[in-house]
Amino acid sequence: FVSVEMSLLIKNGTIVNDDSMFKSDVLVLDGKIVEISPSIEPLPGLEIVDATDRLVIPGGIDPHTHMQLPFMGEIAKDDFHRGTEAAVAGGTTMIIDFVIPTKGESLLVAYDRWRGWADPKVVCDYGLSMAITSWGPEVAKEMEMVTKADYGINSFKFFLAYAGVFMVRDEEFYQGMIQCAKLRALARVHAENGAVIAERCEHLLSSGITGPEGHTQSRPEELEAEATFRACTMASQANCPLYVVHVMSKGAAAAIAHHRKKGAVVFGEPIAAGLATDGSHYYHEDWLHAARYVMSPPLSRDPTTPNALMKLLAAGELHLTATDNCTFDCHQKSLGKDDFTKIPNGVNGVEDRMSVVWDKGVHAGIIDPMKFVSVTSTMAAKIFNCYPQKGRIAVGSDADIVIWNDKATRVISKDTHHHAIDFNIFEGMQVHGVPETTICRGRVVWANGQLRTVQGAGRFVPLAPDSQIVFSAVDNRGKALEPVKVERAPYEATSALAAPDANANTVVKTPARTAIPPGGISSIQF
């Protein structure tokens, strides 16, 4: 039996994968791609999608969202229904959201809560990542449980920010990464220095700085760079692959590059906001305008950073794009009108990411369409171990497909977006590259500027551990990092401590210490 609802024929398009571009038709039956060839004859009654002069690309995968997240006393406005509707309207056909337990809460209880929120609402497929907000033997045990097929978790996120809420101490982070490595699960990190941020917040507030400008001053990008370097260092010691979420600054990106050059397995994820906006908004004279951009880490104060991050994607120093979509409306943002630390952190992005990356990357001449597919879809599918089920136009893959008009433009606006909030951080931005048709598992969910979604039609995608792009080098790297033991003759303390013969011309030398180079410790090449 073939479901006509999940079957269609895409004619006359140019298929773009991460490694090739070619003209071909695509036949979809029962939600799967079953044939790719230059001229396919349509079956009777089959829906035809005309892709003449259009690109046929894998649906986007956003590996970092927070739908209906309870945070800072509020709940994010985009729930799993509105959030996934915004996603498909923008050409994204899968999200990976985060289960975030409260401190001390069972991972299993939190997991069930997130599945209960998402399963009845999602209009596209989704996976889950798990945050670790506490540490102990029971947490380690539950980490092992949720990596089983029944739960489908293959990554764990650690916060080095939000002291007293989500943050873990360095030793907890390190122990957590050791457990991740044992489970062949990817460690993900929010890299900031939570302890220093807390001190700076107190100082700024006592100095009378209460507005959104205080947010960016409380967590300067040097702290992101420091925490990223520290996290990469600890991950290397644990021999655990690391994924740095929302890379917002050049310094953080440089820390990732430094460790990758030494052989560390580290992935860097810039987000749509950081690729298209900068931190000048925090100093806008309109308080509400400034507050709308409050997120952590904050947008870079350097206006050249967005372009630099895109170039690092082009160079392979950063690897994939996400959004950190976590939306709060103007009323919720206004709760921090007298204290910037009470402004709920989070911005939109899941609807506009694909167009922003095309505009700032492909249209700007920095990346080609194949790299676009890689950083918006394929690399995420590979890292999170759902490739080639996702992230590729190929026979046997899920029919998550976007018909992309690379010549069209659109103007981003709160008046036309599908988010549940009353502003958009990209307001008024004209972007090149428009998703004309979005197809999820063979079902058209967006076409002609209209949603055709069914609430709850999306499926949970279990993500298995041991992704090859993540772990294939880890075992050999572990051998190189094994501790070294020196075999010595038995140590005779009495003879070693015996006084020298007074009549002997003996000089007793103390062990030499490591010399500090003339330029000081800062001149050491690591």
Automatic annotation (TrEMBL):
Every Amidohydrolase-related domain range: 55-445
Catalytic reaction equation(s): 5,6-dihydrouracil + H2O = 3-(carbamoylamino)propanoate + H(+)
EC number from the UniProt entry: 3.5.2.2
UniProt PTM comment: Carbamylation allows a single lysine to coordinate two divalent metal cations.
Sites of N6-carboxylysine modification: K157
GO cellular component: cytosol
GO molecular function terms listed in the Swiss-Prot or TrEMBL record: dihydropyrimidinase activity; metal ion binding
Keyword Cell membrane: no
Keywords on record: Hydrolase, Metal-binding, Zinc
Names of required cofactors: Zn(2+)
Gene3D superfamilies named in the record: Metal-dependent hydrolases, Urease, subunit C, domain 1
Assembly behavior: Homotetramer.
Family: Belongs to the metallo-dependent hydrolases superfamily. Hydantoinase/dihydropyrimidinase family.
Name under which the protein is recorded: dihydropyrimidinase
UniProt organism field: Caenorhabditis remanei
Lineage, top ranks: Eukaryota, Metazoa, Ecdysozoa, Nematoda, Chromadorea
